[in-house]
């Protein structure tokens, strides 16, 4: 498992037993255009510019976490073996995370989530099948930010 160090903005690799001594935050999100990918971070480290990744890192720092896990950044999807292993490990990775942040890209800031017609209730994130897995095994989902 790779984690993104919030201070160095570089990826670090850990075995599951080593993760316990490196508490991390995990991000649940839907893919959009212009995602920050593993290949981008591997070359130069993360240099900022993505509201989603920046928001996750900033919140993790505020919450006292030194690492974050974001699928787009931490999984080498060009390797079918690694992608398969990651898919099979996600339930465990979400369960071991100290906190799970949810990024709702399609929800404007400041809207009332309790309004039945709100963008929050109609977010694309709630239509994805894997969100049940996230909610079932993560400690405390909470919204990081929205656009």
From TrEMBL:
Residues 24-106 form the Heterokaryon incompatibility domain. Pfam families: HET. InterPro entries: HET. PANTHER family: HET DOMAIN-CONTAINING PROTEIN. This is Heterokaryon incompatibility domain-containing protein. It comes from Coniochaeta pulveracea. The lineage of its organism: Eukaryota, Fungi, Dikarya, Ascomycota, Pezizomycotina.
């Amino acid at each position: 498992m790779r984690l993104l160090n919030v201070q160095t903005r570089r990826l670090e690799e850990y075995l599951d037993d080593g993760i316990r001594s490196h508490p991390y935050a995990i991000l649940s999100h839907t893919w959009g255009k212009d995602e920050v990918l593993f290949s981008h971070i591997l070359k130069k480290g993360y240099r900022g510019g993505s509201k989603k990744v920046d928001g996750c890192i900033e919140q993790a720092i505020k919450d006292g976490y030194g690492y974050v896990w974001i699928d787009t950044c931490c999984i080498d999807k060009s390797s079918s073996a690694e992608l398969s292993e990651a898919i099979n490990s996600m339930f465990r990775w979400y369960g071991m995370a100290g906190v799970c942040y949810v990024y709702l890209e399609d929800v404007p800031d400041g809207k009332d989530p309790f309004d039945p017609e709100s963008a929050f209730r109609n977010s694309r994130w709630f239509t994805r099948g894997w969100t049940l897995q996230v909610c079932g095994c993560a400690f405390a989902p909470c919204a990081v930010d929205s656009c």
